[in-house]
Prior knowledge:
Oligomer: single chain
CATH class of the largest domain: Alpha Beta
Shape: globular
CATH superfamily of the largest domain: Aldolase class I
Radius of gyration: 20 Å
Helix content: 40-55%
CATH architecture of the largest domain: Alpha-Beta Barrel
Number of helices: 13
Largest sheet: 9 strands, parallel
Number of strands: 11
Amino acid sequence: xxxxxxxxxxxxxxxxxxxxxxxxxxxxxxxxxxxxxSDWPMRLIAREMGASYSLCEVMxxxxxxxxxxxxxxxxxxxxxxxxxxxxGQLMGAEPEQFALGAKKLAEAGFVVIDINFxxxxxxxxxxxxxxxxxxxxxxxxxxxxxxxxIVPEHIPVTIKMRRGIDxxxxxxxxxxxxxxxxxxxxxxxITVHGRxxxxxxxxxxxxEFLKQVKQHVGSKCILGSGDLFSAQDxxxxxxxxxxxxxxxxxxxxxxxxxxxxxxxxxxxxxxxxPPSLWEQRETMKRHFLLAEQIYGEDRASVQMRKFGIKYSAxxxxxxxxxxxxxxxxxxxEWMSKxxxxxxxxxxxxxxxxxxxxxxxxxx
Length: 363
């Protein structure tokens, strides 16, 4: 931003820096945990694009407890200094085993442990995990207590939850029992998704509920989630609710530029143009090479198909580009698609939010 005399003026941030426990996060827009997506390459690119903090994809406690140090599974706990701070997210059914899983995440270098009480996927609920815990406050709070007790004191422990199982009065009471009880047990922050577990991803996320929660807890840290598909959405959620930060989930898949855009408008600047095709090409190329480092070429090629599909939403010929990534089988094919569709440095487009609605973040 410049004055009429040409002097550069430092834009004043519109919101306070985010802090979780003793951990200074800073910019209050972070990347959420995304099942099947938020691995090391995605998190690192998001960090480079402006995300101040990210969460790994949710892991099962029993899987973590039994996990051996093998080449094929090393990506689950893989994290590096340049992407920090990064949280490990955990899901499970039994309090004692849950705590052991949390301990393993802390030992692996994750600087925050996040408890998933939000996943609405049917098979998860059927095994008494994720959002199911919102129906049993006593078990949920026992998980919280054991996790907080076993994780080193300097490592923040947080929770991801929805506004309840459903919209019944009992569900609302259970939500606040868990919310208040968790803060009493030493939880450092809670992320609230504005839909119920019963809703899954159907219908709007109720941001007014986030405002009620923030007013209820006062100075305690609340982050918001749900229907954040653009930088404007992130800004509007914070303005309308008064929460301390937002977690971008589906809106960040294939669109790490959303964090750059958030940093601009959160500072009172104009919304940047969507990335050009050359900018997209360079990021997509880097994403593949990072994935290759932890998966190897063959596995990375399969893993990156779903990312190519999401990245294609920023291309003006979205449908044709999307189709071309569906069957990629090698690094050579990935690079060939980039040469084919991103050869000319044309303007990109902002992604259509409806293209992300079929993807779930298990939260």
